[in-house]
Design goal:
104 residues, alpha+beta, 4-stranded mixed β-sheet, 4 strands
C-alpha cells in the first residue's frame, strides 16, 4: 500500500483527483495490523474509485496533530482536499465498504 508522509501529504492526499482514504497507523498497534490486509484488498478492488494510503503517526506527527488523530487505526476519507468521513478502529471488510459506500 502506498505511504504518505508529512512532506508528501498535500500532494498525495489533498491534491488527489480521487477520494483518498488515509490509514493513520503505527507499527506497535495490533488493530492496525489486523486492518492492513483488508485495506490492501479494497485498494485493489476499488482502484478506479478510491486511493488508499498509509501514514505512520510516529514518523509523521505534524499531519496526525493537524487532523486531531488520537487513536489508531483512524481511517480518514478526504475528498477535494477536505476530510469527509472519519472511522476509528479496525472493522471487517464488508462493514468498512458499507460505511464508505455513500462517500466513494
Amino acid at each position: 500500500m502506498p505511504v504518505t508522509t508529512d512532506a508528501t501529504f498535500a500532494a498525495d492526499v489533498l491534491a488527489a483527483d480521487l477520494p483518498v482514504l488515509v490509514d493513520f497507523t503505527a507499527s506497535w498497534c495490533p488493530p492496525c495490523r489486523m486492518i492492513a490486509p483488508v485495506l490492501a484488498e479494497i485498494a485493489v478492488e476499488e482502484a478506479e474509485r478510491l486511493r488508499i494510503v498509509q501514514l505512520d503517526v510516529d514518523a509523521n506527527p505534524a499531519t496526525q496533530a493537524a487532523y486531531g488523530v488520537l487513536s489508531m487505526p483512524t481511517l480518514m476519507l478526504f475528498r477535494a482536499g477536505e476530510p469527509v468521513k472519519v472511522l476509528v478502529g479496525a472493522r471487517p471488510k464488508r462493514r468498512l465498504l458499507q460505511e464508505l459506500a455513500d462517500e466513494i
